[in-house]
Amino acid sequence: MRSIKTLLKIGIPTLLILVFASFFMYFSSQAASLTAVYVYMNRIQANLSTGVVYIVAVAPNSSFASGGTLKIEFPQTQDTTWCRTAGSMTVTGVSSSSADQSSGNWDIDAALPGTLAGTCSQGGASTADTITITGLTALTAGTTYGLQIAGNTGILGTNSTVGQHDLTITISQGATIDSKTFKISLVSNDSVVVSATVSESPSVNCVIGSNTVNLGTLYPGGAFAVGSHTISTTATSGYYWAAYGTGNGSTDAGLYYGGGPYLIPSSGSTTVDLNPANSEGFGIVLTQPAGGSVVPANFLAGSNGIFGSLDRQFSGARMILYKTSSAASAENSTVTYGARASTSALPGAYTETVTFICGGYY
Amino acid sequence: MHIKQKNTLYKTFLLIFTLLLFPITVLATELDSPNYKIVGVTTQGGGIIESTSGNYSALLNVGSISANPRLYSTSYGLSTSPETPFLPAIPTISCFETDTNGSSACTTGPAALTTGGMVAICGPSGCYNKARFEVSDTSASNPADTLYAVMISTDNFVSDIRYIDASTFMPESYSTHNINDFMTKADWEAETFNIKGLDSNTTYYIKAFALKGDFTQTATGPIKSATTASGSVFFDIDIAGSTGYTAETSAPYSIAFTGAYELIGGAAAITAGNRIWMDVQTNSDGGFAIVMSGVNGGLRSPTTTQTITSANANLDQVASGFGLQSEYIDYDSSSSLFGEISATTDYSGTINTVGIVSPTAQKIYDGDGPIVDGRMALKVIAKPGITYTPATDYQETIYLIFVPRY
User: Fold this and answer.
1) Is A193 part of the contact surface with chain B (CB cutoff 8 Å)?
2) How many CA atoms lie within 13 A of A266 on its CB side?
3) What is the pLDDT of residues A45-81, one digit of tens each?
4) How big is the A-B interface in CB pairs under 8 Å?
5) Does A103 touch chain B (CB under 8 A)?
6) What does the alpha-carbon distance between residue B60 and residue B54 come to, in Å, rounded to a whole number?
7) Among residues B225, B223, B220, B224, which one has the least CA distance to residue B90?
8) Is B340 in the A-facing interface, judged by CB distances under 8 Å?
9) What is the pLDDT of residues B131-161, one digit of tens each?
10) Whole-prediction pTM
11) Short-list A165, A80, A167, CA closest to A129
């Protein structure tokens, strides 16, 4: 009887041990490749020493019971470059991310469940920098889970080498293990700096000193007469003045007497020389302000009795003054009108309306 | 012999018997091996193969099966034993490929594969998680309805012995392998990637066996091996003008609204002369995302402390603003299995419609599969309005993050 008891004491436990052993022999490690995974880092620049945050999307191929662990392992030869300071991580489940595919396996379905805790550990002789997340509760095969990992007492960085780097993500619980090894890319610089100069809106201020000029009495065959006024300009980035006349309304600009009718014309396309005896004509000249302004040669004051000729209508406007740079303070020019009547001119009241156009260069 | 000695002897004997019980049980389960299906095993405590006592089943020896009515299939009738002529020919694998480049031994896959190898359908460096095999149709003349199953291993079938599931095409254990994992050659090869769920940078060995009617499963054929590729990613930023399709520039990367592109108060929206160009290449199944974020949420001047705020907007319809617009997308579309690149909606505008640059990350480009020779360009557009104080230090820093999806 005693021997049977002894036998039971020895035999049954031994049998149970063997039965359990055979169970584990049969249900050996179930390893599979993760169905989908991506790692979205907030920075992909090489050699960052701090501030790297990961969002990880991972879809297990197997279902996992509660109590699983998720690991991110970095290349074994790059110890201490990814986990710059070993310590705890701040881990939170996320239900979506900007890197999600609009549909399919890479679209986060749910936040990684559990009371998540993370650490980053630095590699050694036979180990690699590793982020370990524990506290996972049950996971369903084919569901894509999201989590965010940020530094806490541990600090995450990036390796100094530009290019591809292997990462291995593993989810394990007991004998069930899903993992995938893949590559991420680091660049020398992941940023583009956009700079801008904002300037004031350009402006021009144009002033005509007088709107009427009286040339007095022109005697047929007599000398030429002159009259003047000023124009003044300020501009942020350059300006121009142009002018055209009215004349008889059909053939040319100039002083016109409608009662005659008679036109003292502003003939030609260049200048009008009022010096010759019995000459007749009408034109204008301008003084050139200092500071870079330009009066075209035909209109530049300085040659006695020679005036620039005008044409009629807007289409005949001629440039009389311009500047391609700013005129911070008022720049003045004197416009002088000159006219001479020939002996054939009819007596009467002659007028000409000269229209000035001013604008800015922007 | 003393009683105590006898008890000790009995205990030892019983212990040894108990220990032996387990291996016997294990051996019994192995009667259903991967190669043979043996029905109605009744060893009744063990025996020897050639016993004539009538108490033991001779089914322990496949080569001498008695006439069992269950051995009759619709195609074959075995009156005594499954003679070799009744079995289909042992299949050989004519191609098992993961990373072939420029040519392929596979003949029934897509044209891109047969002419360009696996790289032509998986992208740079080949397939990292899948493969294709084909059953030889030249070394044997099995009927078209012959079924095949495939075994796979990472250690040449030393201890890692798995099968390919014919519905998921992923490796499975022996415990889930069944008759549904047999398919015809045509059905196997109709799937472009008929082995999936593999690990990257790993050598796999496969071999096949055939079945044509009940109890006609053959031995496995020759082993073929292939090594999966590693994941492959490439991302690069360049700054160049609107025609900089092939331009390559080095960091630091900057774009300036200065000179001819100066932002003039009250003026219409201005597009910077240079573009942000990006190169992308990856063999990742899920393609990629390019995610962008800005530091200031617009062009900010430290001296004036004003920010030309960025928003999703048509700058022609707002007083001021700043943002990005996709101008150019190109990629290799030579294979229908390659992915396509598209800009997300907010960044796909025209004229002066822009997407926001925000401290909150925004996705600007999506690739939906392996990408070869991807190239994209972004316009940078700004409108200063009339309320911003002139300054030369308005600035925004934009981060561009490349995320491959495996």
Assistant:
1) yes
2) 38
3) 999 999 999 999 999 999 999 999 999 999 999 999 9
4) 229
5) no
6) 13
7) B220
8) no
9) 999 999 765 578 999 999 999 999 999 999 9
10) 0.73
11) A80
